[in-house]
């Protein structure tokens, strides 16, 4: 097993503790390599089974150690990631998976390594690669999601035992550093049995390569992960990234019932969470409508911060969402900040509602074709202001600041620094990498 420490991969260490940040960084590597397997073929079943055994053994060992820690001295954040040495063997350019990638702690971001220079340097290095198998190379890069399996005992298998409870773990982070993911049924088992005192969970992922894989992921999210979320969790953040434009993005995801089912399952979480950034595939109108219908339980709602990433919507669709958002805000008496936003060029917009010192304010920014806030939106939010403040609603309309110094290819994402809730939406280290990579000279 290898564990990332500092700026390199260190062997023979099961985990590393960073006392100053109360964080444990755990990477289960190396998984079995597929070097003898032709690139145009997928992972062998034998390799998948061995990877799962490695993952299961390493995770159980770590949780057993953590179960002995005294939680009276604060808590720890657990970050988990996994990769195989052959994941990038046939791929052209994935510097984040290199052994010398500048690994960074959150506390050191002010002295952060220049990620952009590192990416530029790595992109110029020669690499053996055949375009004939680019699709297969991507499949190998993503691999098969890891899952916990019963460990063999001699010639028989015994049922999987319960995981040890780890009340010392307060935060759980899956960063998008690597492409290989984890089965959501396994994460649900962690929640149900081990992470019993978890206070926050941040889940970053890369979009699936195929439509069926994407639907399968969100089905498992709805069926396994959301029901298993510990009641102690107060902050929940999902974010999804796409390095390549997979063909499935052009399929009618809006038409599948899964999005509505997912949205209905997410809505009741506002009774538990104080901070929430929901997943991309959520049906936004359905989610907001569900929140609005919970007005009879508004006294139970604990939500204070809510960030919703919208889609490439036209004016009428954005107007409908903002009206529904006002009805949702009325059912959330503790809500302090709500943001609805999108970053794609020509469709960028940012709507922000804040409630502070008996003053309700809405801010509207958009790029591309300029359009004003619709009268029905103003009317709806004036109703929210009158419900929770004695002062009249303040409306701040503005254009996005200029970005003439930014190359068009890095235009997407320049909305990020303008988000009031960017620390909820993005992991600070992930955001720092993205911002640096957008600053092309």
Automatic annotation (TrEMBL):
InterPro entries: DUF6546. Residues 252-405 form the DUF6546 domain. Pfam families: DUF6546. This is DUF6546 domain-containing protein.
């Amino acid at each position: 097993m290898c564990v990332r420490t500092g700026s390199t991969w260190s062997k023979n260490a099961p985990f590393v503790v960073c006392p100053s940040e109360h964080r444990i960084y755990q990477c289960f590597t190396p998984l079995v390599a597929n070097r003898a397997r032709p690139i145009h073929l997928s992972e062998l079943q034998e390799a998948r089974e061995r990877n799962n055994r490695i993952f299961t053994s390493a995770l159980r060992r770590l949780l057993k150690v953590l179960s002995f820690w005294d939680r009276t001295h604060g808590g720890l954040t657990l970050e988990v990631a996994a990769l195989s040495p052959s994941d990038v063997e046939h791929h052209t350019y994935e510097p984040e998976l290199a052994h010398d990638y500048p690994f960074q702690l959150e506390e050191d971001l002010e002295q952060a390594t220049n990620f952009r220079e590192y990416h530029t340097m790595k992109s110029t290095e020669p690499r053996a690669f055949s375009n004939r198998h680019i699709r297969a190379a991507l499949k190998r890069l993503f691999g098969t999601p890891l899952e916990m399996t019963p460990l063999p005992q001699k010639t028989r298998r015994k049922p999987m035992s319960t995981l040890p409870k780890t009340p010392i773990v307060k935060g759980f982070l899956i960063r998008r550093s690597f492409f290989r993911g984890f089965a959501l049924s396994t994460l649900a088992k962690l929640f149900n049995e081990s992470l019993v005192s978890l206070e926050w969970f941040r889940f970053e992922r890369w979009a699936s390569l195929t439509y069926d894989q994407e639907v399968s992921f969100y089905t498992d999210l709805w069926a396994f992960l959301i029901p298993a979320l510990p009641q102690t969790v107060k902050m929940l953040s999902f974010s999804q990234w796409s390095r390549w434009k997979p063909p499935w993005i052009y399929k009618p995801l809006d038409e599948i019932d899964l999005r509505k089912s997912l949205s209905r399952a997410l809505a009741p979480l506002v009774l538990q969470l104080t901070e929430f950034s929901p997943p991309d595939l959520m049906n936004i109108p359905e989610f907001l409508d569900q929140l609005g219908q919970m007005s009879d339980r508004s006294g139970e709602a604990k939500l204070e911060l809510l960030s919703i990433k919208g889609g490439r919507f036209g004016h009428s669709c954005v107007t409908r969402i903002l009206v529904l958002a006002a009805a949702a805000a009325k059912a959330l008496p503790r809500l302090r900040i709500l943001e609805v936003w999108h970053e794609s060029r020509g469709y960028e917009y940012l709507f922000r509602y804040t409630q502070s010192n008996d003053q309700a304010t809405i801010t509207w920014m958009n790029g591309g074709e300029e359009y004003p806030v619709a009268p029905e939106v103003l009317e709806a939010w004036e109703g929210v202001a009158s419900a929770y403040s004695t002062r009249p609603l303040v409306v701040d309309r503005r254009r996005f600041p200029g970005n003439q110094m930014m190359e068009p290819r890095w235009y997407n994402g320049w909305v990020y620094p303008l988000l009031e809730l960017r620390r909820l939406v993005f992991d600070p280290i992930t955001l720092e990498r993205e911002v640096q990579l957008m600053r092309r000279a």
